[in-house]
Amino acid sequence: MKLLAVVLVAAAWAGFGSALDNGLALTPPMGWLAWERFRCNTDCVNDSYNCISQNLFMQMAELMADEGYLNAGYDMISLDDCWLAHERDQQGRLQPDPNRFPSGIPALANFVHSKGLKFGIYEDLGTKTCAGYPGVLNHLETDANTFAEWGVDYIKLDGCYSSHEQMDEGYPEFGMHLNNTKRPIVYSCSWPAYQNDPNYTAIIKTCNLWRNFNDIADSWTSVTTIIDHYGDNQDALAPLAGPGHWNDPDMLIIGNFGLSYDQAKTQMAIWSILAAPLIMSVDLRDIRPEFKFILQNHRVIAIDQDPLGIQGRRLKKSGSIEFWLRPVTPVDNDNHSYAVAILNRGDSTPTRVSFTLKELGMTSAKGYWVEDLFEEVVGISLMPSDPLTVSVNPSGVVMLKCSLLK
Ligand SMILES: *[C@@H]1O[C@H](CO)[C@@H](O)[C@H](O)[C@H]1NC(C)=O
Ligand SMILES: *[C@@H]1O[C@H](CO)[C@@H](O)[C@H](O)[C@H]1NC(C)=O
Ligand SMILES: *[C@@H]1O[C@H](CO)[C@@H](O)[C@H](O)[C@H]1NC(C)=O
Ligand SMILES: *[C@@H]1O[C@H](CO)[C@@H](O)[C@H](O)[C@H]1NC(C)=O
């Protein structure tokens, strides 16, 4: 068998100069964001249960704390678009829609903090948010100060209604104002998602995470389009990621309507290989237990949150099978342990896949302890040349951790 050259070197950070150093997001952020599941439903008259309102966020925050999500690492809940009133107040400050957020944002932030969670907010660098509410352009300092005073811990700053030049100036300027507030605030940018040739040197200096690509939708097609984008562009994208600065392939849609059980595992696995932020967007009030179990899989989460912060890559495709690998701890001198996701892009039957660890670039003479991260089965000890066979369901994944033996 052909021994594949392995390109999984620890991403050398040197080429990109300095990264944002606010001490935050040293592992990919984890939390809950309203957008993909609840969108811009502002109809609290006819649909009060699902509309964007303080009640929705309070319910989700309680469930995150009570149902194990916070313990699993999902420690942030964030507003997305459509929380704002259409006008600023008399002092020119942003204000929430008074009917849907009658207690105001500081009260909501306090409630979220009382549950042990961090509080996130959404705005847009342009004249308007994507849904047409007031944007921050021409109010950057005022709005950064307002968010800090309100107790915001995380901001997603979108890029609708702003030019490329306004983004190139505005994202760093807003970041400077955030820094000047002295409040630690994770800065999530949408800057590169709106540009063909983004200046990642500037983006890494400015943002803790950034959306590179299309918004996710509630479908397997959307998930695979995103997976392909990160695989096809991995030489450009993977080296950008590291502690404090992450590529963001967008929210987890696990538990909604568009993914099967196997497809949900695939999203969780590939997002973790990619060192992606794990931001759920699902109704935690009625999520089915098997999806909750996937979202709270502590062994997969540990891969996502691996302290080395190296973004993994698609190593090879053969037929309908893709191998995705990520170097993780424990490390022994020059040798890494690896997370491996074997993905079946086919649509017929479960497929048997045979390989050796050596073919994937794992050559340590001391061997590896190999565990299946989705199945509760005992691990096995394997030498690099030992054969291994797994069965991968259509649109499903087998995820392994191969830990160096000492
Ligand atoms: C509630 O539904 C009615 C009938 O569809 C509609 O006319 C009205 O605009 C809705 N209310 C709000 C606040 O959207
Ligand atoms: C502000 O920037 C400095 C210099 O990078 C950094 O040390 C500090 O942690 C930042 N403070 C906040 C609150 O972001
Ligand atoms: C990209 O950003 C860096 C850092 O802000 C800057 O020095 C450089 O001139 C920018 N490159 C381009 C092509 O604009
Ligand atoms: C790392 O792997 C190489 C084989 O590629 C082996 O020669 C070397 O001894 C290993 N180092 C350690 C510390 O295990």
From TrEMBL:
Q: Which reaction does it catalyse?
A: Hydrolysis of terminal, non-reducing alpha-D-galactose residues in alpha-D-galactosides, including galactose oligosaccharides, galactomannans and galactolipids
Compartments annotated for it: namely: Lysosome
Q: Does the keyword tRNA processing apply?
A: no
According to the entry, every stretch annotated as the Alpha galactosidase C-terminal domain falls at 319-401
Keywords annotated in UniProt: Disulfide bond, Glycoprotein, Glycosidase, Hydrolase, Lipid metabolism, Lysosome, Signal
Protein family per UniProt: Belongs to the glycosyl hydrolase 27 family.
PROSITE patterns, A to Z: ALPHA_GALACTOSIDASE
State the signal peptide span. Answer: 1-19
Quaternary structure, per UniProt, is: Homodimer.
> By what name is this protein known?
Alpha-galactosidase
Record keyword Hydrolase present: yes
Q: Which organism is it from?
A: Scylla paramamosain (Mud crab)
Q: What Gene3D superfamilies does the record point to? A: Aldolase class I, Golgi alpha-mannosidase II
